[in-house]
Automatic annotation (TrEMBL), chain A:
Annotated EC: 2.1.1.214
Every Ribosomal RNA large subunit methyltransferase K/L-like methyltransferase domain range: 147-265
Pfam families on file: Tmrp11_N (PF25904), UPF0020 (PF01170)
Protein name (database record): tRNA (guanine(10)-N(2))-methyltransferase
Keyword Transferase attributed: yes
Automatic annotation (TrEMBL), chain B:
Family named by the database record: Belongs to the TRM112 family.
InterPro entries membership: Trm112, Trm112-like
Any single Pfam family the record assigns to this protein: Trm112p
This protein's name: Multifunctional methyltransferase subunit TRM112-like protein
Length: 407, 128
């Protein structure tokens, strides 16, 4: 990817935080062939001439989707002899590293072809000077779920938890909340980048696990971020005890969907006979109130409305938009006044997918706590918000119609 | 549960909409815990602070090493000095409640805290 940044320092910051970055280079030239590349690169002398003298250097030649054989790497490096780098080569610790990066098309079905097959048939080759190697990539290993003190079958994988954490703009001195915290996967990655965190879940067992200390705190301890976990709480987010709004810099969450962690809310389905809950309450330590299913699109909408209340102005909501697996139908992105869409990225599993949605709160008025009581679908489209599936869907999906079910 | 949570929670039982904050502590066991000091965070949070509640909380007997003395009058945000900020930080972020109860001054609902996790779930007859 070629991008413009104001300052080399900004490029270094990106290399520090972006989980997907392998390295950041100062871009010199590119081309569909090395001849084309050299043609432009010879004219970019002002960029590389400063390193001709008194600079130790090395070259690296790598490819995307391709291993490049040693003999061709040598040929490629020789092709740059006109740069006349006089300083000694230093393979271990060079002052400057010049990199060629060849981009090959995805192998797809050909994944099993011999290693060097198709070598040189790249789409494009890029050339530049190394600024920084990506430093956030190794966090994927660090936060590997399988190596975690406590995790469960709902735990979010490390790479995604890190990507989500970056979407929240986590930093020191911020307060970030996960209302469906489960085993806490995103609390750790958000705390890694400096923020204080709070998590809640309707099911205390998810946060506790079986040990003496709550499992989420054990894992946080392993990552040395336990001091940033300010609180874990048990409650139904639709019946929440927050005293006021405007509390959080970001809300990050993976709402319940699917078989393993279906959505629930307190209360009973109409018509289900009620037990004497007053009697049951005599032992509040063990009392588990009844719950009933929580319709998916309602949940997504409630989450956005609640976030608008709980976020500070400018605060972000980062969440996965569940997809209904057996119907292969995407749940619409809720449209709520005061909440603007920042990003919508699809993780495509073929027959279905999930969308990582980032929204930002853009309003400074103080609202009343929203009423998230169960309500009829028709009713919730009557007042101030627009039905997600009406205008929005057309506008939004017209551009990139990935779903074969959508006309 | 760090005490900051107590400061932003209120009883949410059906119909309990006034005098439902602060929840009253009883049978509390707490410990001192670490938290990075962030003046920026505290200043951002400052408008959410109910000063009288903070003072009362700071006098809770379970806070080890004695009470934290905060000025009776709430200082203006601009006048906050580092010493006061550190005290606020200590009360809100460095006291960790492990077990105990929080009860509603209005309706009497008891929210138990076990292994540091308050159970804020409502019973069936308490949800709106
Ligand atoms: C997909 S999981 C989240 C998993 C979490 N990201 C993790 O790393 O383990 C969804 C969670 O939402 C919880 N949940 C379901 N309905 C809820 C509700 N109404 N209020 C709060 N939490 C709820 C479930 O107990 C479950 O732990
Ligand atoms: Zn109450």
């Amino acid at each position: 990817m070629v991008a413009e940044v104001e300052d080399e320092e900004h490029a270094r910051i990106l290399a520090k935080r972006c989980v997907l970055i392998k390295s950041v280079l100062e871009f010199f030239s590119s081309g569909a062939s090395y001849e084309a590349l050299h043609l432009t690169n010879r004219n970019k002398e002002h960029l590389w001439a400063p390193f001709q003298k008194n600079t130790t250097w090395k070259f690296s030649v790598t490819g995307y989707n391709q291993t490049i054989p040693k003999y061709r790497q040598r040929d490629v490096v020789e092709g740059f002899s006109y740069m006349a780098l006089k300083g000694p080569v230093d393979l271990a610790n060079p002052e400057q590293e010049f990199c060629c990066f060849e981009e090959y098309s995805s192998k797809g079905k050909e994944a099993l072809r011999p290693k060097y097959d198709g070598d040189g048939n790249f789409i494009c080759v890029y050339f530049g000077r190394l600024i920084a190697k990506g430093q956030a990539r190794n966090l994927i290993q660090k936060y590997d779920v399988k190596k975690r003190a406590y995790y469960g079958n709902t735990s979010m994988d490390a790479e995604m938890s890190l990507l989500m954490a970056n979407q929240t703009l986590s930093a020191n001195g911020k307060l970030i909340y996960d209302p469906f915290v489960g085993t806490g996967s995103m609390l750790y990655t958000v705390a890694e980048f400096g923020a204080y965190v709070i998590g809640s879940d309707i099911d205390g067992r998810q946060m506790r696990g079986k040990g003496k200390e709550p499992g989420v705190l054990s894992s946080a301890g392993q990552y040395k971020v336990a001091s940033r976990i300010l609180s874990l709480l048990t409650f139904d987010v639709t019946n929440n005890p927050w005293r006021c709004g405007g509390l959080f810099d970001a809300i990050i969450t993976d709402p319940p969907y699917g078989v393993r962690a279906g959505a629930k809310r307190l209360g009973r389905k109409p018509g289900v006979p009620s037990r004497d809950s007053v009697a049951a309450m005599r032992d509040p330590d063990t009392y588990i109130p009844p719950t009933h299913p929580y319709e998916l699109s309602m949940l997504a909408l409630d989450l956005v409305i609640l976030s608008r209340y709980l976020l500070k102005d400018g605060g972000r909501l980062v969440f996965f938009l569940p997809t209904v697996n057996d119907e292969y139908k995407e749940v619409d992105i809720p449209v709520v006044e005061g909440m603007e869409l920042v990003a919508n990225s699809l993780e495509n599993f073929g027959a279905w997918g999930r969308r990582l949605i980032t929204m930002v709160k853009k309003e400074s008025i103080t609202r009343e706590a929203p009423d998230l009581r169960p309500r009829e679908c028709s009713e919730r489209y009557l007042d101030h918000y627009v039905p997600a599936h009406r205008d929005f869907r057309e506008k939004y999906f017209a551009g990139f119609n990935r779903n074969p079910d959508v006309p | 549960m760090r005490l900051i949570a107590h400061h932003i929670l209120a009883c949410h039982a059906k119909g309990c909409t006034s005098n439902n904050f602060p929840l009253k502590f009883s049978d509390v066991e707490s410990q001192n815990a670490e938290a990075e000091f962030s003046p920026d965070f505290l200043k951002g949070f400052y408008p959410k602070i109910e000063w009288n509640v903070l003072i009362t909380t700071a006098k809770e007997k379970f806070i080890k090493f004695g009470e934290v003395s905060l000025p009776e009058e709430q200082p203006n945000l601009e006048d906050l000095d580092e010493e006061t900020l550190k005290k606020i930080h200590h009360v809100l972020l460095e006291i960790d409640v492990i077990t105990g109860k929080m009860s509603c001054p209005n309706c009497g609902h008891i929210y138990p805290i076990m292994s540091g996790i308050p159970n804020m779930l409502l019973a069936e007859h308490e949800i709106a």
